[in-house]
Amino acid sequence: MIIKDEEDTIERCLSSVKDIVDEIIIVDTGSSDNTKDICTRFTDKIYDFKWINDFSSARNFSFSKATKEHILWLDADDILLPKDMEKFKIIKGSFDTSLDSVTMKYNIGFDEYGNITLSYRRNRLVKASRNFKWIGFIHEYLEVYGNALDSDINITHKKVHYKPNRNIQIYEDKLKEGMHFSLRDILYYGNELYDHKRYVEAIKYYSKFLASDEGWLEDKIRVCNNMCDYYLSINKPEKARKYIFKSFEYDNPRAEGCCQIGFSFLNENKLYQAIFWYETALRLEKPKNSLGFFNDAYWTWIPHLQLCVCYDKLGNHKLACSHNEIARKFRPADKHILFNKKYFENIGI
Predict the structure, then answer these.
(1) DSSP string of 158-204?
(2) Domains of the chain from N-terminus onward
(3) Within a 10 A sphere around the Cβ of 6, how many other Cβ atoms?
(4) Which residue among 158, 259, 267, 268 has the highest number of C-beta atoms inside a 10 angstrom radius?
(5) Along the 349 residues of the chain, how does pLDDT read in single tens digits?
(6) 134: left (phi over 0), alpha (psi -120 to 50) or beta
(7) Closest Cα to residue 84, out of 150, 17, 129?
(8) How far apart are CA 66 and CA 72, in angstroms?
(9) pTM across the whole model
(10) CB 131: neighbour CB atoms within 10 A?
């Protein structure tokens, strides 16, 4: 682990893994709070690393301190839930030593009801002898190859403190230094600009990324989704749809994109077109072991709730009610869904 000023989360994280790992290695990049003292309750392998605005350097240093055959990495606001601890113990108990990597699902977004809204896979447990390296000064990734297992273990991200300006400040410091951005840097700087609502600048960097013949297809799909959202927000539905259709060039249609197209038609009151795309979203099979980014809401309740709206507008209240009830199975306390339920009861459905 690499950490800095994580006194509010580090104990929770380490408590969740202390019984399933054989050593805990902490690399501190400059804490000024009680973080390191808390860590001493779990390990004596605590190292200092001077922060140089480079996450990969710190992570590679942490990996260099590992003495066991395999390395699991986490961030301070990650935890393993009890069911995932048990899954980890099972894999560890009968581990296939031919494996170079074990991927785990990373659940990073949740709605107010605890439902997962954003998840993707990451290489989490790797063979130390392969000497895999972290790459990228920010939004770093572990370059892994060889024999991999896509496990059913989940890492749950439970962020407490947000540092909204840290990443974009690092990027802009690098630009001031005259650093040449790789295609990946262009992508993630675009993401930071987008998250900071600097949309015009974000679109500029996104367009550079999409114009390249290189780049991960999953990233290109996500960029198309973001660009669609932006053009929907400024009431340019045709341009919004253009980017979702472009995403179909990279892979089979995804429920996220189909729902965005459906929403664009719904806003234009083109109900039959909207219904077509929402129903298409429901027919899709979610890729099981893809490393891409997925919002589970678009694969579950959102298309049903939107079909409820569409069919109600068309006067088919019975079918609208049916879709609302399916959505309610996923979000039983959702105030909008409950409002719809009462509405249908009042009209005798």
Answers:
(1) ---S--TTHHHHHHHHHHHTTPPPPHHHHHHHHHHHHHTT-HHHHHH
(2) 2-157 (3.90.550.10)
(3) 26
(4) 259
(5) 999 999 999 999 999 999 999 999 999 999 999 999 999 999 999 999 999 999 999 999 999 999 999 999 999 999 999 999 999 999 999 999 999 999 999 999 998 888 888 999 999 999 999 999 999 999 999 999 999 999 999 999 998 877 779 999 999 999 999 999 999 999 999 999 999 999 999 999 999 999 999 999 999 999 999 999 999 999 999 999 999 999 999 999 999 999 999 999 999 999 999 999 999 999 999 988 788 889 999 999 999 999 999 999 999 999 999 999 999 999 999 999 999 999 999 999 9
(6) beta
(7) 17
(8) 10
(9) 0.87
(10) 10
* Angle at CA of residue 184, ends 181 and 190, nearest 5°: 80
Q: Are 273 and 294 in contact (CB under 8 A)?
A: no
Helix 237-247 × helix 255-267 angle, to 10°? 160
**∠ Cα 102 39 131 (to 5°):** 35
Q: Alpha helices of the chain — where are they, by DSSP H?
A: 10-17, 35-39, 55-64, 82-93, 166-176, 183-195, 199-211, 217-233, 237-247, 255-267, 271-283, 302-313, 317-330, 335-346
